[in-house]
Every structure is written in structure tokens, then in C-alpha cells.
Specification:
By secondary structure, the protein is an alpha+beta fold. It contains twelve helices and 14 strands. The structure holds flavin-adenine dinucleotide (FAD).
């Protein structure tokens, strides 16, 4: 099917995009990689009267460490994250996820920020951003605000973006030396959306106790969710098989999936627990913790 008619505006800078969004208000939608928006328009699930294409805005294409954060601009494709040499050795959670999103063709076009703005309940980046304690930098004609990802993610396909506002960047705090993470995903076949997923990031103190844990699950609820109970269980304790099993149970309890052709409610809940267990074990093993496997 063809999309409903729409006006198309090319933005050559963030400011041009913001001016166009301000002029059209709720009628305008940002076009980033187009990997979710264009199919939705073709199926007439979305009928935005105006598209503001940010692809010509080269100033939004950056992927850098600055001011204690990994900063990913709104024009940065998944592919750039996957292939950046400094990611795999230090950003374990992000590196794991970057190769599991869709397929290489989609990753050549799709953007990290676009995925977060789309907030598909089965998307990979929302769970990663929750576990990695990311923040979104949002800009409009009224100014700039920095919103923690917990406040940005509201519900299925819903974020706290306001009319006339665009996301210009997502920021992840740079992990410390004794921090690791892991992303685990079950998919029916390579390139599919998740049946269930888990993202974790953990830090250890000098005594080997857990000093901060981020745990999130995806595809098993209306949107990706932080498993706060698991984070509280982990914090301040030494990693052990029993502790990991308790955290996994908290994830299974929180999961609230819908049944579909990817699996039943019972299966998806069980997988949320299994994936949190695998992700935590993997992250602690990466930090050199023994006796967990
Ligand atoms: C075949 C296929 C398989 C896929 N599999 C997966 C998968 O396994 N896992 C996964 O996570 N995703 C998957 N995707 C989705 C893909 O990752 C998308 O690229 C991503 O969800 C959206 O990013 P985008 O840059 O293409 O955004 P677009 O499609 O351009 O935009 C998506 C939405 O976000 C809004 N938006 C985008 N950027 C901004 C911004 N800077 N500010 C404000 N609003 C913005 C748009 O207005 C639109 O509403 C798949 C897509 C396809 C086509």
C-alpha cells in the first residue's frame, strides 16, 4: 500500500528541524532511518501530514565520548555503533545489543535515537537504555531538556516527547573499570524482533560486592521495564548463583507479556527469568567472578 499524502521537508540542521516542528506542531513527525515510520505509513497505521527528514543534518551524526558520557547523535545509525572499535572492549551491553537488532540491512539505516523515540515494546534499545541508565537530550523552540530514560519511556510506542520537540541525542554514562553488562535476546529466527530480552549492567566495588545494578526486560510487557526489585536484591551483595536466581525470579514475576505467535504468556515470563539469569551470569563472568557457571 502507498502512504497517505504528506508534505516532506528536509532539515539540514537540528535548528531547521526544530523550526519545521514548531511550525507544524502535532502534524509533524521526524523521519530518521525510516525503518519503522515508513512501514507504518505504508500500512496507514501512521498518517503524519508532515515529515521532517533529519537525514541531511550531518551535525546530528556523531558517536563520541565527552563529559563522562557516550553521546549518540540522532543521525547515528545502528551500524556505526556496531562497528566502532572502542565499543566492544568497554561497552559490553551496547556491543551485545548492537549486533542483535534486526539484520545488517536495517542496521545500515535505523538509528539508535529513532528506535528509542519509536519505543516498540519489542525493540532492543529501550531495555538497553534502561539498564545502562541513559538520558535523552530533547530540543524544541522552547529550549533543551535532559530526560532520564525512565521518564522518557511512558508506554507502548509512547514517550514523553512533546509536540514540536525532537530528540537530538541519547547519552550513556561511561562505564567504570569494574563495570560490565550483557544483552540477551530470544528470537524465532535471525533478524526477528525479540520474543523476550534482558539487558543488565553491573558494577563491583573493591571488595567484590555489587555497587550498582541495572536490570531491564523487553518484549514482555507494554514497554521495556526496569526490574527494580532485582536491582535492589543485587546491590550491596556479592555475586552468587543464588542471588542471580533471586534476581531472575523478580524479572519473571514482573513480566506481563501478551500471547502471540512468538509464544504463550507462561513461556515468555519464564524466558524473561532465564534471560536475566544468563545476562547477569555473563556480566559477572566478564568481570572475572568465578563459580557462577
Ligand atoms: C525488517 C525489520 C526488522 C526489525 N527488527 C528489529 C529488531 O529486531 N529490534 C529492534 O529494536 N528494531 C527492529 N526494527 C526496527 C528498527 O530498529 C528501526 O530502525 C527503529 O525502530 C526505528 O529507527 P529509525 O531510525 O528507523 O526511526 P524512524 O522509522 O525514522 O522513526 C520511528 C519513530 O520515531 C520518531 N523519531 C525518530 N527519530 C526521532 C528524533 N530524533 N526525535 C523525535 N522523534 C523521532 C519518528 O517520528 C517515528 O515516529 C526492525 C525494522 C525492520 C524494518
Amino acid at each position: 500500500m502507498f502512504p497517505a499524502p504528506f508534505d516532506y521537508q528536509r532539515a539540514h540542521s537540528a535548528q531547521e528541524a526544530i523550526d519545521a516542528l514548531a511550525a507544524h506542531g502535532a502534524d509533524a513527525r521526524v523521519l530518521a532511518g525510516g525503518q519503522s515510520l515508513i512501514p507504518a505509513m505504508r500500512y496507514r497505521l501512521a498518517r503524519p501530514p508532515v515529515l521532517v527528514d533529519i537525514n541531511p543534518a550531518s551535525e546530528l551524526v556523531y558517536f563520541r565520548e565527552a563529559d563522562g558520557s557516550l553521546q549518540i547523535g540522532a543521525g547515528t545509525r545502528d551500524f556505526a555503533v556496531e562497528t566502532a572499535p572502542f565499543v566492544a572492549p568497554r561497552y559490553h551491553l551496547i556491543a551485545d545489543a548492537s549486533v542483535l537488532i534486526a539484520d545488517p540491512v536495517v542496521r545500515q539505516m535505523g538509528t539508535v535515537v529513532g528506535s528509542l523515540c519509536h519505543n516498540d515494546p519489542a525493540g532492543d534499545w529501550p531495555a538497553v537504555a534502561l539498564a545502562g541508565r541513559a538520558s535523552m537530550v530533547l530540543r524544541s523552540s522552547a529550549g533543551t531538556r535532559v530526560v532520564p530514560i525512565d521518564e522518557f519511556i511512558v508506554d507502548s510506542y509512547t514517550t514523553s516527547l512533546r509536540d514540536g520537540e525532537m530528540a537530538v541525542e541519547v547519552r550513556f554514562p561511561i562505564p567504570g573499570a569494574r563495570t560490565s553488562g550483557s544483552y540477551q535476546k530470544i528470537e524465532r529466527k535471525v533478524g526477528d524482533f525479540a520474543t523476550a530480552s534482558a539487558a543488565v549492567q553491573v558494577s563491583l566495588d573493591a571488595a567484590g560486592k555489587i555497587a550498582g545494578a541495572g536490570v531491564a526486560i523487553g518484549a514482555v510487557g507494554p514497554s521495556a521495564m526496569r526490574v527494580v526489585e532485582a536491582e535492589k536484591l543485587l546491590d550491596g551483595n556479592a555475586p552468587s548463583k543464588e542471588l542471580i536466581a533471586d534476581a531472575a525470579r523478580a524479572a519473571e514475576k514482573l513480566a506481563d507479556p501478551s500471547p502471540d505467535n512468538r509464544g504463550s504468556v507462561e513461556y515468555k515470563k519464564a524466558m524473561a527469568g532465564v534471560l536475566v539469569r544468563r545476562a547477569l551470569t555473563n556480566a559477572f563472568v566478564r568481570l572475572g567472578v568465578g563459580g557462577l557457571t
